[in-house]
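Sat 14:20. Reprocessing the chain from the morning session after the first attempt stalled halfway. Input below, unchanged.
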Amino acid sequence: SSGINAEYGHAQDNQKERMAKQVAAKCTVEQVIPFYERARAPTFAKSMMIKEITNLFDELKNLLKRNKEDRESRGHVLKVKAFQEKLSKTMKFWPRDWEKRMKNEEDKEFIRIMMGDRTASLGPADNVLGKTEERIRKRNISHEMQMEK
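Finished this time. Tokens:
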């Protein structure tokens, strides 16, 4: 009976850890999305972005699980350096065909810089394009409301 209770408690702990990891990844995505939206950059679905972040966390967790002897091995040191290099780069939340999807050259340049040295900055919004996008959004909402009737 105590073995079953211990296993049940372990399963609950694992579920709590998975939920916490999902919540943290979702919060991260929610904080990153506005930058992509402002740059009018296409992104993956939020669920895919969350999966990318949780995979990164799992990779870190596996690196930290090693015992002291394994941590000092050359192979492990190389894996840690590769992971650190991965962290130094921008996570690619944009699809492969992002250049085809984007029309504005300034917006494309934002993604190109994010792929490189990550020194991109957001300038003032393009008012003409913003107004066009707002009209399209309103038209789509109106069309959806008509379809529901």
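The chain has a mean pLDDT of 80.
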